[in-house]
């Protein structure tokens, strides 16, 4: 059986790098997309199938990467790249909110749209293809616990975009799913040194290994009939 192909964005470190490691172990053709391949030493050491330059905040960069990969059938697109700015009520700024929206919401949309031909090619070849949007629990309006004015809003927008993509791509046998990775000990979260408190709940950070291992278990079970669903890394369905 021929190997399948996965494209992962934002994989110079953290969750994205872990996805690359795990899919290489499974024998997949892994295409790793990063802003600057020349400085991604850990990624280069893994020697994935391909490494491409892609900055999700730059539309020309996205289109260039899609063109470079013309002809590649992509079975799984993992939109992992993103940024976080912890803006609270008193500190949120227009500039920060717009930057978060540009990278976390518009960026994954542009990447998904640019790679639709590659996803369709895989769906024709293997029956279906999937897009995974790495979102966040704070993007859930129903579970809002305050603050995260920029980051939470950007992830809520990503969730809405993903719902629309799921509807528009289902006829092409391309599924679109939203996953919450949990609170993960990465550079983005300061190593998870500080517990998160949501109401009466205290959330401790999990490792990238657990996060990605659990997310892959969820991904492996997804079917086209579920397209447009929003899940936690635990497999729990989340409310919008």
From TrEMBL:
<dbReference type="InterPro" id="IPR020904">
    <property type="entry name" value="Sc_DH/Rdtase_CS"/>
</dbReference>
<dbReference type="GO" id="GO:0005737">
    <property type="term" value="C:cytoplasm"/>
</dbReference>
<dbReference type="GO" id="GO:0016491">
    <property type="term" value="F:oxidoreductase activity"/>
</dbReference>
<comment type="similarity">
    <text>Belongs to the short-chain dehydrogenases/reductases (SDR) family.</text>
</comment>
<dbReference type="InterPro" id="IPR051468">
    <property type="entry name" value="Fungal_SecMetab_SDRs"/>
</dbReference>
<dbReference type="Pfam" id="PF00106">
    <property type="entry name" value="adh_short"/>
</dbReference>
<dbReference type="InterPro" id="IPR002347">
    <property type="entry name" value="SDR_fam"/>
</dbReference>
<protein>
    <submittedName>
        <fullName>Uncharacterized protein</fullName>
    </submittedName>
</protein>
<dbReference type="InterPro" id="IPR036291">
    <property type="entry name" value="NAD(P)-bd_dom_sf"/>
</dbReference>
<keyword id="KW-0560">Oxidoreductase</keyword>
<keyword id="KW-0521">NADP</keyword>
């Amino acid at each position: 059986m021929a190997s399948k192909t996965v494209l992962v964005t934002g994989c110079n470190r953290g969750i994205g790098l872990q996805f690359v490691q795990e899919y290489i172990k499974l024998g997949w053709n892994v295409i790793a997309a990063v802003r600057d391949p020349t400085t991604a030493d850990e990624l280069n050491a893994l020697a994935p199938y391909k490494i491409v330059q892609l900055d999700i905040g730059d539309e020309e960069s996205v289109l260039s990467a899609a063109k470079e990969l013309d002809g590649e059938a992509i079975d799984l697109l993992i939109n992992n790249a993103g940024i976080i700015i912890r803006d609270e009520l008193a500190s949120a700024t227009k500039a920060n909110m717009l930057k978060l929206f540009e990278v976390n919401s518009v960026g994954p949309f542009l990447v998904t749209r640019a790679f639709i031909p590659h996803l369709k090619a895989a769906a024709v070849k293997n029956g279906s293809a999937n897009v995974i949007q790495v979102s966040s629990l704070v993007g859930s309006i129903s579970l809002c616990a305050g603050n995260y004015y920029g980051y939470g809003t950007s992830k809520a927008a990503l969730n809405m975009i993903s719902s629309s993509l799921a509807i528009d791509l289902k006829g092409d046998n391309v599924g679109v799913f939203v996953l919450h990775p949990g609170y993960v000990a990465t550079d983005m979260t300061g190593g998870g040194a500080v517990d998160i408190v949501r109401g009466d709940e205290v959330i401790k950070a999990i490792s990238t290994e657990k996060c990605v291992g659990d997310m892959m278990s969820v991904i492996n079970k997804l079917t086209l009939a579920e397209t447009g669903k929003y899940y936690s890394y635990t497999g729990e369905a989340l409310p919008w």
